[in-house]
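Moderator note: this is an archived Q&A kept for reference. The question asked for a predicted structure of one protein chain; the sequence and the answer are reproduced below.
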Amino acid sequence: MANVDALVIGGGFFGCEIAVELRRLGFSKVMLCEREPGLLRRASYVNQARVHNGYHYPRSLSTAERSRANFERFVEDYGYAVRTDMVKLYAIAATSRVNAAQYASFCGKIGVPCREAPAQLARLFDPDLIEASFLTRELAFDAVALARTAAQRLADARVEVRLNAPVKLDPIISATQPIRVATPAGAIEAGVVVNCSYAALDEVGVPVRARIKRELAEMLLIPPPRDIADVGITVMDGPFFSTMPFPAARLHSLSHVRYTPHEAWTEPGRGHAPPVRSNGEAMLRDAARFLPVLAKVEPVRSIFEIKTVLMRNEDDDGRPILAETCAESPRILSVMGSKIDNIYDVLETLRAHDWKEHV
């Protein structure tokens, strides 16, 4: 049996950063277990690759302000994996939940750059369907570059990494005893467990009190038309779409509020069936109404992942972190973020946590 001071479950971006932080906090022997054959293979890769700057959340001022506060810091810390040579447009649909004046006011309130898009960019949109478009500052990250550096940082911090290592906690959880965990390579006994397995939070055997909604989500990868090769576009606010540079594949991603989700559920521990079809054609068809340059795009492929959101934020679109101590044992902490810039909020939470008796 392996014995460690701290075990991190999940080798996504958050799990890797948390493992390194636990070493900084004084844990001598830290192990990270990831069920995939590599790091950052699941939700850290299958997403819009957006470095948020607050623009996406006019209905959740607190989320917008946190993204704004973290944006420049993320770009500085992870600049090697951020595409900075891109233009980002936010367009307001004629049937949006917020009108153009309200959106401009919101941007002013959180202090982000926002000005009317120049004519050569504004004319990309169908003027009958788009009320206004704004030039903003938002960027995209490369998950493959993040993964390479994460592996090196873990090695430098002397964190033991086990890949192809799904885990399951012993159902008997003690508040005072180390946590026993089963893996294909044998049992592990850990003084502390940090569960950041995202959509699998409660599937690894950690009870989670927060209600979580899961969606089987499809991201379409497309070759960008020349007119938007270096442009990201988001149409707000309602059942619309977003297309962004996807640096990891040198393509663009396309997601759609209506067609990206294939199914949703809230029951803990429930599995999901693989999709029987792609919604890519519907995504492209609807997006092309607003952005005609997409009309002749031939998609490359779709990538699928389970997306999660806290049920308490289903209506206001807020994206706070979840940091929940297990009711059965203070030795187990479950962590979930919805945006990559949430990492700073997670690390602050870890530093504020009382680890004294476990270090």
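Archived answer notes: Helices lie at 13-24, 61-77, 100-110, 119-122, 143-156, 280-290, 343-352.
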